[in-house]
Amino acid sequence: MKIEQTVGRAVFESAAFHGRTGEFHIIVRPTEPGSFEQQLDWVIQAYRDGVEDLGIGMNSAVLRRFFVSDPANQARALEARAESNPESPDTPCAISWIGQPPAPPARVALWAYHVSDPRGLDKELSNGTLTLTRGEMAHRWTVGLTSCESGPGEQTREILGQYDDELGAWGSTLADNVLRTWFFVRDIDVNYHEFVAARREFFAAHGLTAQTHYIASSGIEGRAPDPRASITLDAWAVSGIRPEQIKYLAALDHLSPTHRYGVTFERGTAVGWRDRRHVIISGTASIDAGGNILHPGDVEKQCGRTLENIEALLKQAGAAMADMKMMVVYVRDTADFELARKLVGERVGDTPFVVVLAPVCRPGWLIEIEGLAIVAADNPGMAEF
Predict the structure, then answer these.
(1) Pairing of strands 94-99, 61-68
(2) Beta partners for 124?
(3) Stretch 101-112: mean pLDDT
(4) Burial class (CB in 10 A: 0-12, 13-18, 19+), 189
(5) What are phi and psi of 202, to 5 degrees?
(6) pLDDT at res. 1
(7) How would you class 371 by CB atoms within 10 Å of its CB: exposed for 0-12, middle for 13-18, buried for 19 or more?
């Protein structure tokens, strides 16, 4: 069940899964116009109050992503507040900033992920990576990897090389341990093809091919605070995860394999734990089984097909739309903000979601949606989340 409450001048929404440990996905957005600093304060206050009402404490935070309208000029305000400062010593948390303007009147919106455990959490933050140790597993949320090399291809290779080195230091690899990536591409209509070629080349050299598997991902417009950065990477990896815990989702009656049109990511990934299953839904758009864009120019029909595709992926993992705990809705045109909010809200019920401006990798796609579902499971032989 979604919890929704208005706190001051912001709306706090959350959805949870309760097992031996609890998971909470939280969306906060301002409800009134204001300066960036004002809205950021409203969002943070509503977030604090909402977390207190949930009874989980701020120390349960694992990831916070701030969607902002102008990161180059808003970085100073974000650094000035503990909850949005990536280097804050208050409580360890991976904190991501991305230039994807939220729907008006917001200049800033927040997605926060929390894990609660009555036994306490073992967390450590180092060099932009939050490590959450859970028994034999170590979940690692890495955020804000960028490069200032000369072009998007070179930056992609530099970022992936840096991330691969970090994985190696943890005894992990891209192919075996990374469950989810986000590639934020500045000026995606211009830079996407170079990014895709560099990623495809790097992946192939590291055992990620059409014959093996890829990684659940979103490749979407997004800006880092440094205007020289064309590519930004956020990622989630789990050291110690076993192959039998992971199932890759395809729904080939609805969507084509991504390699058919030259890209390299999984449509979705189901991850099994002792008492639950995570279903990661990659950035999904209005596409058919042949890889074609459906309903060009019609955002309403594209939204419907996108949600239909997501339902097909969820079904393959034994989940349904009602199991979604959070969604991010990307639109290409600011004029579609309200329609997208209305259409998605009518279909997803209690799922918290945020609508942001972020063109998709092909100009013909007017909307893209990603998210995460969690369903109860009984897998006594698997590791505990």
Answers:
(1) parallel
(2) 131
(3) 98
(4) middle
(5) -65, -45
(6) 66
(7) buried
